C-alpha cells in the first residue's frame, strides 16, 4: 500500500485525504495548527462561504453520504439582493429558473465535519506539525518531511500532497528544485468581517431574506452578507486600502456607514459595528498561480497552495475541491502516480488561470455593474437567449457555478463567443431606443 502525506488539514487537504484513503492509499495528514475542534483560536478567513456545484460534485465523488450531510446544513441563495443607497432592495436571480442556488455554509462546521470523517476513515492526523523542509531519500527518492521543532520526527512517504494554503511551504520547497513559474499579485482591496445578529425574542429570526446573497454595491467598495443557520448573517466589507485606513476611528466609521450603508447600520447595530472596526483584523486579498504543480511522482500542490484567488466568484474552495476530483480521476485513469501528476499539471493550468481572472473581474460586477441598466439589459438578453436556444447558450455565471461538467477554461471560451453576440444585440437595442426617442422628441417639439 502506497503511503501519502497530506500537508494541511484545511478544507482541501481533508477532502484529498478522504478521497485518497478511499482509493486504498495509507494517508497521514500533517497540520501546523492545533485541532480546531478543541481549540478556541479558530483563525478563520471567513465565517461562512458559498459552496456550489463544483464543490458538491467533488464531495459526492469522494463520499455521497458526506455530500448529503453538507447539503443538509446549507442555506441556498437563489440570487443577489441589491441594496441601493435609500435601502430599497431588488432581487437578481443567479440562474434561469430562480431555483439554481449557491449555498451558504459555516466554514468551521465544514472543516470539523471533514476532520471527523477523516478520523472515521482511519487516516492518521498529526496536529502541531509545521512543515519546514522537504528532503529526498537518496535510495528511493521518497520525500522526507521535516518539521519545526527538534522533538518532531521527520516523516517519509511515497508521495506528498501540498494543501497548505496560500503561503504553502510545500510550494516554496518545490520552487527550489523544479523550474516553477510563479505569479503573485495583491489586489488593492482589503476586507473586514462584520455580522448582523438574528432578531426576535430568541435572536434567531432572519432580519433579511436568508435565500439571497445581500450586496450593497457602491462602485469602489461594497458590503455583502450571507445567512447563517442560527438567524444571523455574516457580513464582509470590501474596500481599497486607502478607504479602509481612513476608517480608523468611531466617528469616521459611523459617518461613512450612515452615508453609504444606512440600512445596514440598523441591522448591524451601531455599537457592534464600531466594535468590529476596532477589534477585527483587516484581511488582504491576493491572487497567485504557478506551473507546473508537481515534481515527478513525489510532490504535488493543490487548493490555495497552488492557486489563490480573490473571493468574488465564491470559487476558491469549490475550485480546490475540483482539484481533488480531477486528481483522483487521473490517479484512476493514468498508468501510475507520475503520469497522473504530469497530466494534472498539463491540463489544469488553463482552467485555474481562467477562474483566477474571472474572480478578479467579478469584483467589478458585484460592486459596480449590478447597478448599471446596460448590464441588466445584457443579462436579460442573456437569459432570453438561454430560454430560446436551450443548452446551446449558457450564461457565464451558470457555467461557472451550476455546471461542473463544463471546465472553467471552456466556460470562458464559450462566454467570449457569446459575449460578442450579446454586445451586438445590446447595441442594436440601445441604438433603436435612441433612434425611437429622437423621433418622439422631434415629433413632440414640432407640434
Ligand atoms: C473572505 C473570503 C471569503 C471566501 N469565500 C469563499 C466562498 O464563498 N466560496 C469558496 O469556494 N471559497 C471562498 N473563499 C476561498 C476559500 O476560503 C479558500 O479557497 C479555501 O479555504 C482554500 O482551502 P485550502 O485547504 O486549500 O487552504 P487553507 O484553508 O488555507 O488550509 C491550509 C491548511 O494548511 C495549514 N498549513 C499552512 N502551512 C502549513 C505548514 N507549513 N505545515 C503544516 N500545515 C500548514 C493551515 O494551518 C491550514 O489548516 C473565501 C476566501 C476569503 C478570504
UniProtKB/TrEMBL annotation:
Alphabetized InterPro entries for the sequence: FAD-bd, FAD/NAD-bd_sf, Kynurenine_monooxygenase
Highest taxon of source: Eukaryota
Key words, A-Z: FAD, Flavoprotein, Membrane, Mitochondrion, Mitochondrion outer membrane, Monooxygenase, NADP, Oxidoreductase, Pyridine nucleotide biosynthesis
Pathway involvement of the protein, from the record: Cofactor biosynthesis; NAD(+) biosynthesis; quinolinate from L-kynurenine: step 1/3
Cofactor(s) this protein requires: FAD
UniProt source species: Wickerhamomyces ciferrii (strain ATCC 14091 / BCRC 22168 / CBS 111 / JCM 3599 / NBRC 0793 / NRRL Y-1031 F-60-10) (Yeast)
GO cellular component, one term: mitochondrial outer membrane
Subcellular location: Mitochondrion outer membrane
Classification lineage: Eukaryota, Fungi, Dikarya, Ascomycota, Saccharomycotina
Catalytic activity entry: L-kynurenine + NADPH + O2 + H(+) = 3-hydroxy-L-kynurenine + NADP(+) + H2O
Summary of the function given for this chain in its UniProt record: Catalyzes the hydroxylation of L-kynurenine (L-Kyn) to form 3-hydroxy-L-kynurenine (L-3OHKyn). Required for synthesis of quinolinic acid.
Name of the protein described by the UniProt record: Kynurenine 3-monooxygenase
SUPFAM superfamilies noted in UniProt: FAD/NAD(P)-binding domain
The keyword rRNA-binding appears for this protein: no
